[in-house]
Design brief:
Shape: globular
Number of domains: 1
CATH architecture: Up-down Bundle
Order of helices and strands: HHHEHEHHHHHHEHEH
CATH class: Mainly Alpha
Number of strands: 4
Mean pLDDT: 80
CATH topology: A middle domain of Talin 1
Radius of gyration: 19 Å
Number of helices: 12
Strand order of the largest sheet: 1-4
Helix content: over 70%
């Protein structure tokens, strides 16, 4: 048990660090290739903050513990809205651009609906994987086209991805390759430790994925949100969360079944997916205002989001302690 806990801590530490290096290297390569900062922010950074979830989910399926993969994706989406946005809003109110509510949020909700549909039969197969990834490619293409057409100027701050102190191409490729190797290696360590704890405690792989693994792989999003506060642009936090949740719903869930199909714990459909959908709808309700100049998630709303996340985690904890589930 002690070795498994150490493996989780070491795996998470390396995972978060290597994901950060991977993003830095990929962004530098894109800039050297003449790709705009705007496109880098939409694609590279969005993918990079979800890289830990993707790596962990792929390794989980290869290690034949797919419950960790599904729990990781759903749990990360719940943590992004409840924990990360909750903490960020408590520290500083988050202003919401109107265009983000109209477009990016709608895309996220659409992706959530498709995800629920794919999981409804309690199975994920290659057809589901191709559907989810195809939708992701379509959404990314639409967002890039829209931004290039100048329709999304207020939803992204290009200064976030400036080219100050841009690393050399050689160094960028080195960090990309090293980051990728460490992502895979640390994911294997993390999944090994998490699955060992699940088996030792008699806890389902899904619950481990929803809690320990999901919280750990959401650290890059938390770091990005805190960084946005330091740079006095807290509104970047919600863009980070929406982008990450898109990748989680479509790539983190979509890639594993391309390796091989697997069954899904029924609790994911009846207990955890409704929580994810509810928080996604609540995010829209909290972001919308009749006065479009006052779209904001303030401290009170942040406290509500955080309280809901804590309540959900407490429910999972007491379910584990009691050994009984309403959804098994």
């Amino acid at each position: 048990m002690l070795l498994s806990i150490v493996a989780i801590l070491v795996g998470l530490t390396i995972l978060v660090w290597s994901a950060d290096r991977f993003v830095d290297g990929a962004a530098a390569i894109a800039q050297h290739m003449g790709v705009s900062n705007l496109i880098i922010g939409i694609t590279v950074v969005g993918f990079g903050t979800s890289a830990p979830e993707i790596a962990v989910s792929v390794i989980a399926v290869l290690e034949e513990v797919p419950g960790i993969a599904v729990g990781n994706a759903i749990g990360s989406n719940i943590a992004n809205i409840g924990l990360i946005l909750g903490i960020t809003a408590l520290l500083a109110p988050i202003s919401i651009p109107s265009s983000l509510i109209r477009s990016e949020y709608s895309l996220l909700f659409g992706a959530t609906v498709v995800l629920v549909w794919c999981l409804y039969d309690l199975q994920l197969d290659r057809l589901d994987g191709f559907l989810l990834l195809g939708l992701l490619i379509g959404i990314m293409s639409y967002m890039i086209y829209s931004h290039r057409s100048g329709k999304k100027e207020e939803s992204v701050d290009e200064s976030e991805v400036g080219d100050d102190e841009l690393m050399s191409t050689k160094a960028a490729w080195l960090w990309v390759l090293l980051g990728l190797v460490l992502l895979i290696g640390s994911s294997r360590i993390l999944v090994w430790g998490a699955s060992n704890i699940a088996f030792s405690l008699g806890v389902s792989e899904l619950v481990i994925g929803l809690t320990i693994v999901a919280l750990g792989t959401s650290l890059p999003e938390l770091a990005a949100s805190i960084a946005s506060l330091k740079k006095s642009i807290p509104g970047m936090a919600i863009g980070n969360v929406i982008g990450s949740n898109l990748f989680n719903s479509l790539a983190v869930v979509g890639i594993p079944p391309l390796i091989h199909g697997f069954d899904i714990d029924s609790a994911a459909l009846h207990r955890d997916l409704p929580v994810m959908v509810f928080l996604t709808l609540l995010l829209f309700a909290m972001s919308f205002s009749r006065n479009q100049q006052l779209n904001q998630i303030g401290r009170v709303k942040g406290a509500v989001l955080l309280a809901l996340f804590v309540a959900y985690q407490c429910y999972l904890y007491f379910e584990v302690v009691s050994g009984e589930s309403l959804f098994s």
